[in-house]
Amino acid sequence: MRLLAFSMLMAGMAFGQSPTFYKDVVPVLQKHCQECHRPGEVAPMSLLTYAEARPWAKAIKAAVLTHKMPPWFADPHFGTFSNDRSLNQAEVDTLVAWADGGAAAGEPKDAPPARAFAEGWSIGKPDLVLDLGVDFKVPARGTIEYTYFVVPTGFTEDKWVKEIEVRPGNKALVHHVIVYTRPRGSKFVGDAKPGIPYVPPPDDRPQKERPPQTDRATLYGINAGAYEMSAVYVPGGVAYRTLPGQARLIPAGADLIFQMHYTANGSAGTDRTKVGMIFATEPPRERVVNAFIMNQSLRIPPGEPGHQVVGKVTLQQPAQLQALFPHMHLRGKSFQYRATFPDGKVLTLLDVPRYNFNWQITYYLTQPLVLPAGTQLEATAVYDNSVNNPYNPDPKKEVYWGDQSWDEMLAGFVDLAIPAGMNPLDLVRVKRTAGSGGPARP
User: Fold this and answer.
1) 182: β partners
2) 307 and 414 assigned to the same domain
3) Measured between alpha carbons, how far is 371 from 48 in angstroms, rounded to an integer?
4) What is the pLDDT of residues 181-215, one digit of tens each?
């Protein structure tokens, strides 16, 4: 099919119909590229005009043929996602033929209207804006480990949030941001203090004290009640929104925890990332909760090119699945989500065959999926701890769970919608059988 499409395109070129920038290329760039490739955004060059794009024609060809750009890593055979930014084959062929045909400009009158981008907050004017509480100085060089900032909300009552957006203070230095809600009483990064950047100490437990690797996992943030992921910033990402009748809960007395990943780029700078929220105007019918399938028992042997770790949890109550966000570190190779339903049916929800730590993507389901009680969610992560992994910090090291980028994680984040009045703990809390005195098995 691809060969046929490309042959037809080349045949058109032979009759003087080579793709031009204004007529054929601009629509593709507007749809898939200009969100990042414009002034003030994270991409290294702008692709808004012909003068800007023409010098990059061959690089654009190489990027789309290798699927390096646009960044999208989901296997198209599994699931459909509303934020899919991948190119279809006709779009790839158009960009390739444009580059091969001399990257002609064409007629400006053939171009579609320029795409309008939201300046400032994409969610509109927030009801509340909170920031790190300090200007953080990022050095010109070196590795900056994950840094945490505690930001008290000051909420004296529960708040329902319809939309929430993270805006970096310095996009050139911010790799990604995760904002967590930490309820009152939680011990999550308990040593961190407001206004003081905090880096957790490494886990230096000896090997004999670490648990053996198993498939047992928890749906963290729900069963532990320690924290919940409330917002994410990644280059080219979108603000967290909820569907009609839904909202996220930030309880009274909660703190926001900003987990900042900075990347030195040769020039020192400062950052003061902030988050904006729009509150629900009426009580929601459904609460959107975020948690992640976590398997802390992972043990990745030295030199292993394809070490697999699995985490499985069983839902004890029905829920509606709305988004998936796979997270690993530098040794991450591939990630897959599956659901096994009570009737035995198995469905692959998302398959990421080539995980890329530099692009932390949330995949939003085009249609939310109802998960009945008894559904088992499974996350399978594969790690490359070999010398063939150019990002591997140390292929001679056995690797365990940890926050640092040279450690690893199996964190399969999920967004689940539940009735607004339901306790999220009930999603994983196993009911006791009558007279048993013990928990029923899932």
Assistant:
1) 255
2) yes
3) 43
4) 999 999 999 999 999 999 988 777 776 677 788 88
Alpha helices in 348-412 (DSSP H): none
Does 88 lie in the same domain as 58? yes
- The answer to whether residues 146 and 178 touch, using CB atoms and an 8 Å cutoff, is no
CA pair distance 36, 233, nearest whole angstrom: 13
- What is d(CA 171, CA 39) in angstroms, rounded to the nearest whole number? 11
Is there a contact between 138 and 269 (Cβ–Cβ < 8 Å)?
A: yes
| pLDDT tens digits, 314-367 | 999 999 999 999 999 999 999 999 999 999 999 999 999 999 998 889 999 999
Is pLDDT at 100 greater than 60 in this prediction?
yes
> Coil, strand, or helix at residue 59?
helix
| Nearest to 33, CA basis, from 97, 78, 95 | 95
What is the separation of C-alpha 368 from the centre of its chain, rounded to a whole number of angstroms? Answer: 17
Query: For residues 330 and 202, what is the distance between their CA atoms, to the nearest angstrom?
Result: 16
Claim to verify: residue 381 and residue 337 sit in the same structural domain: yes
Average pLDDT over residues 219-248: 87
Q: Is 253 left (phi over 0), alpha (psi -120 to 50) or beta?
A: left
pLDDT score for 13: 47
Is there a single domain that holds both residue 335 and residue 318?
Answer: yes
Burial tier of 58 (Cβ tally within 10 Å: 0-12, 13-18, 19+):
exposed
For residue 67, count CB atoms less than 10 angstroms from its CB and return exposed for 0-12, middle for 13-18, buried for 19 or more: middle
d(CA 340, CA 296): 22
The SS3 of residue 65 is helix
* Mean pLDDT score, 13-38: 87
Mean pLDDT computed over 138-157: 95
Residue 223 confidence (pLDDT): 64
C-alpha 2 chain-centroid distance: 30
* Separation between Cα atoms, residue 225 and residue 239, nearest integer Å: 24
CA distance 237 to 235: 5
What residues make up the domain containing 144? 118-188+226-284
Token pair recorded at residue 404: 């640092």
CA-CA distance, 227 to 285, in Å (whole number)?
22
Q: Which residue has the tokens 């280059």?
A: 235
Give me the number of domains the chain comprises. 3
Residue 439 domain-assigned?
Answer: no
Structure tokens belonging to residue 42: 């994270």
Two structure tokens written together for 81: 């996602």
CA 66 – CA 80 distance, rounded (Å): 22
Tens digits of per-residue pLDDT, 272-299? 999 999 999 999 999 999 999 999 999 9
